[in-house]
What does this fold into?
Amino acid sequence: MKVLKFGGTSVGSAERIKNVARLIIERGKNIVVLSAMSGTTNTLVEISDYLYKHNIDGAKETINALEKKYNATLAELFGDNAAALEAATTEIKACFNYMRSFTKDLFTVFEEKEILAQGELMSTAMMNIYLQSIGVKSAMLPALDYMRTDKNGEPDSQYIKQKLTALLAKFDDADLYITQGYICRNAYGEIDNLQRGGSDYSASLVGAAINAEEIEIWTDIDGMHNNDPRFVEGTDPVDELHFEEAAELAYFGAKILHPTCVLPAKLNNIPVRLLNTLCPSARGTLIHNTTTPHGVKAVAAKDNITAIKIKSGRMLLAYGFLRKVFEIFETYKTPIDMIATSEVGVSVTIDNEKNLDHILDDLKKFGTVTIDRDMVIICVVGDLEWQNRGIEAAALDALKDIPVRMISYGGSNFNISFLVSKQDKVKALNLLSDHLFKNKKNQ
Ligand code: ADP
Ligand code: ASP
Ligand code: MG
It folds into this structure.
């Protein structure tokens, strides 16, 4: 059995839902993980924002506008099938009425999570009823009945496996299964979620729990491209990536894949395939445990980075300095992305400024501290074993006209990272494409 995950744009309209229905029927008995229709989760965030601010009218207007959109989709999806239209309308109406119930009481983070869960609950209800209306025996696997995190907020793999196995056995005679991405319950049974974009993570966790043959992530592009298609023209899909390469790209900004998705698949050695709903015959990208020696494979960029430099005469020939510096970041639960050291100083980058003031205060005990904000990590990924010659030189040559604040190389066999200013990001991505990929194509 495979796990097939479809993102928001793939189920973003009645036509797209029908298209996905065709695709999943053709592929047989698999588990289909769905995101909310595109734009819905953002609107649910907006509704919650109004509720936090006690702007009840704003919340109601936004709920009404969203409901209108859903009703139009239902009308198009079910046409003159009155029974199915009524069944779907009843379910969707219940979700909107549930959202309206929050306009009366106190609104906290718990209520927000319940509102955010409605997007996936609605998209899966629509798909399930649509499939049944065209004679497919689809069974709903409610994510809130099996997807759970533990007290540390980590997925509770044992629980997920046990509950999911029982649910599958219960609906053994189904043609296929539908389930929600993104949503879960926490260790206390409250409704929670796996963070924005987390449906990819759901798919990977489901895949791991059932030891799936493959996890397919279906989206609006034909696989992982060798550069960010939002900023570079003429990018190409990459045929194959090692799990580590995919993890680096996802973490450093390749939005097609949520970074958390890689680990459960990698640990269980389940291949992940990135595919395009709009062009199902495209080969896409296969992510697996095998390294293909093709030098540089792709480039990605991560925004909103802050670089912190700590310079200290005391670092010279001293031991323990780095530990003291890292402990400060640990105390404030702030992960470090890049590091560069010299004998008299160290530079690190972070992507979360929540505790920056405290961190700076503590670091100043150890040396002179300077920061650079609005930086971007440009990450060059591929088979970059140190014995392979010329790759670092080619990447540096591409960036020769751009001021580079930090370079990190050798932390893994898969990545070289450059830290540049935000205003140089698009130029840097394009120069890297020209030097690393297009020149090769023209040879
Ligand atoms: P979904 O809603 O299906 O989860 P996402 O919007 O999360 O889809 O991810 C798909 C988008 O990721 C693409 O439309 C593309 O613009 C963006 N993207 C960013 N970097 C890359 C990349 N390197 N390769 C492919 N797509 C990328
Ligand atoms: N619907 C959620 C979001 O928009 C989860 C997802 O699409 O992966 O973030
Ligand atoms: Mg996504």
